[in-house]
Every structure is written in structure tokens, then in C-alpha cells.
Amino acid sequence: MKKAVVIYSGGMDSFTVLHKALREGYAVHALSFDYGQRHKKELDFAKAVCEQLQISHKIVDITAINQLLQGSPLTSDIAIPEGEYSVENMKSTVVPNRNMILLSLATGYAISLHAGAVFYGAHHDDSAVYPDCRPEFVHAVNEVTKIADWNPVEIIAPYLNASKGDILKDGLAMGLDYSQTWTCYNGREQACGLCGACYSRLKAFEAQEQTDPLAYEVH
Amino acid sequence: MKKAVVIYSGGMDSFTVLHKALREGYAVHALSFDYGQRHKKELDFAKAVCEQLQISHKIVDITAINQLLQGSPLTSDIAIPEGEYSVENMKSTVVPNRNMILLSLATGYAISLHAGAVFYGAHHDDSAVYPDCRPEFVHAVNEVTKIADWNPVEIIAPYLNASKGDILKDGLAMGLDYSQTWTCYNGREQACGLCGACYSRLKAFEAQEQTDPLAYEVH
């Protein structure tokens, strides 16, 4: 059976990617990272989903590397920007080189498992804010992972050119339950409804004329 | 002043690269990794050199990621292979995707420091054993680090096509003192003189008709 590592944050995009990989017949090894994110709650969602699906799941604590990376509000006490998911507004949430770091770790894991693929939930809406979600970035990483070991590893980003709304549409068509996902950058009891991540999640539901099953503080 | 991150293990190759970057006028930020290597002693050598040079130095503990990576004798109790530095003999010392991981972390650090370059001591002799020391690997990584952030980072591997002997020659011409470096894969009081790393170090000194200033158990 073909094996794949799926980078799985616990959010709605990677949740959809995880199910997509399963439906494509991969033996999935889910991989989550604790990078000191304030919304660590997403990891509890990831864990619960993997337990329910009875698939392999690792959560790796990489907080030690934060001493190398300039502060982002996602990993510090700086305020999370609210409102529109625009470049200017969200720029401060960029964790330097985050995706290259996560993809390189996932590729090392794939090599160790003799898996030929790493699934990753980059999508088009993120690419204006996060340089390491751009299609050209993912293509360039693929050229590295192809030759980083004697056996190639392919980075598969099935939604690279899709919007978050498209991902949701695909997931709903698969019958997925998005109450099993966490998106809000604030890790409180209920999703805040105001941060950039909530904003884009709610916009995706709106675009699909669906109601988000999660509870929000402000909506 | 132009800034650079130098990946600095404490071994002779990166020691030479560190001095090269300094001579090229970079403000150097040395970066070492504790990845659970049995020859952790190299980190003490790195620390002492940076203190003497009075340059910034960080040692980052990334042992948490070993749970993702299949065992290499460098990070476990498996015996270190002795003798010739050949592909078959040394293959077991490959840490899956090690260099992509280290380069991605160094690039994140460079982005945070607003540094435009990461120096890295890959050289030709390693490229037969370690797939991630091959020139094509380094070129591919450069295509990623160019676009991983809005500001490009260049991976500079000055000895990519050189032998370990060539590096030593360059370093000796710079007047460097190689008693300040540690190479042996076993982390004992004296270098073992038998492991693949000692073997290639001694060969480099021999090629330059020089005597290694380090003490060896067997020579």
C-alpha cells in the first residue's frame, strides 16, 4: 500500500487534504507540529480526528527553533490582527520560512517511512500573504525533495491553485464534518470570529452558502 | 555591513567556511545544531571558537525531531562504521533529509536577522555518500530560499566542488589552526582514528603533506 505523510495542523484545509489522501488510497501518517502557536487547540482537534480515523499521528514539539525566528503574533504575545485577510493586515503573522522548515521535516519523516509523498494544504488565498504558500515555492521545494535522498519524495499540494471556498466545497462533497476542525488564531473556548483566520474561514462558508458548525464569540 | 548565517558544526569544513565568510567581510552569525549527535563534543569546539572570535553563536537543540527520523549511528547506539569513506560503508550514517532541515532552519534565522546569505560547508567528497551534499541539491535549495520569503536568501557553499583536502589547503593558507576543530564521529577524549570521518580528515592532511594537530587513539 502506498504511504504518505500528511502535514496536518488540525485546521480545515489540512483536514480536507487528510481525507483526500485517505480516499486516494494512501496509508496516511499524519504529522502535526507544536511550534508554540497560541492556537495550540488545533492540535487537540488533530489528535481527536486521527484517533477516530485510527491513523498514525505524530505531534512534534519544535518550539526550540523559535529562538531563531523573529516573533510572529502566532507564537508570542503580540496582538493577532483582526479583520480582512489582506497582505498588509496579516503580514505580521508570517513565521519566517515556516513552510520550508515543516516540509523539510515532513520529507525527512517520509524518507524514514519509505513513503513517496508528502501532502500539504497550501492554497491560493494564502499565497498573497505567505510567500511560502505560492505555487512557485511549492514547485521549487519539489525539485529539492526529488533529490534530497536517493529515493524521491513528492510534495503534493492538491489545492495549490484553489481558494479556501473550493477546499470547503470539496470537503462538503466528501461529507466531511467541519466541526472537527479549528481555525481561529486565538486559542480560546470559542473561535473569536474577528481574526484573519476566522475571517477567511467564515468567508469560505459564506461562499458555499453554508453555516459554519463552530461556535463563535462574535459573528 | 552585510550579514550572513554560517552553519557551523565545529568540524574542519565549516570552521574553514566560517573564517572565509569573516574574511569576505560578513557580519557572521554562527549557527550550530544539537541533533543528538554522539560527537556532541564538536559543539564545544564550535563554542570555544566563536567566543575567541567574539561572534554571535547559537546552538539550537533539535533533538525532538529525531522521533521522525530513522536511526543513524550518528544519533543512536548503532556502531559507527570504520575505515574507508565509501558509499557502502558510510550509507548508514545518513540522517534522512538532514541538510534540507538544517538549511531551512538557517534560512529562517537569516530572514529573521535580515541577512541575505547562509554559508554551508558541503563539499565534493561528501556528495557520493550524502545525497544532500550534491551540487544539484544545493542549487535546488537555492531556488527555494530565493523565494521562501519576500527577500531572497542565498545559500553559499564555497567548497561545493572542492575536496576536503582543498578546503584544508585553503584554511592553512589563511593560517587557521585545525586543533580548534573536531571531526571524529565518536565523541571520546581523543579522536578514534578509525571511523569514516577520521579517515577522511587524516586523508586530507596527508594530501596536503601536513600533520593533523589533533591527538588520535589509533593513527
Automatic annotation (TrEMBL), chains A, B:
Question: Entry's Pfam families?
Answer: QueC (PF06508)
Q: Which residues form the signal peptide?
A: none
The entry's Zn(2+)-binding residues are C184, C192, C195, C198
Residues annotated as binding ATP are Y8, S9, G10, G11, M12, D13, S14, F15, T16, V17, L18
Q: What is its EC number?
A: 6.3.4.20
Cite the entry's keywords alphabetically.
ATP-binding, Ligase, Metal-binding, Nucleotide-binding, Queuosine biosynthesis, Zinc
Pathway the protein contributes to:
Purine metabolism; 7-cyano-7-deazaguanine biosynthesis
Under the heading InterPro entries, the entry gives: QueC, Rossmann-like_a/b/a_fold
- What is the superkingdom listed in this entry's lineage? Bacteria
Q: What is this enzyme's catalytic activity, as reactions?
A: 7-carboxy-7-carbaguanine + NH4(+) + 2 ATP = 7-cyano-7-carbaguanine + 2 AMP + 2 diphosphate + 2 H(+)
* Cofactor descriptive note: Binds 1 zinc ion per subunit.
Co-factor(s)? Zn(2+)
- Family annotation (NCBIfam families): 7-cyano-7-deazaguanine synthase QueC
Q: Which family does it belong to?
A: Belongs to the QueC family.
Q: What does this protein do?
A: Catalyzes the ATP-dependent conversion of 7-carboxy-7-deazaguanine (CDG) to 7-cyano-7-deazaguanine (preQ(0)).
User: Which protein are we looking at?
Assistant: 7-cyano-7-deazaguanine synthase
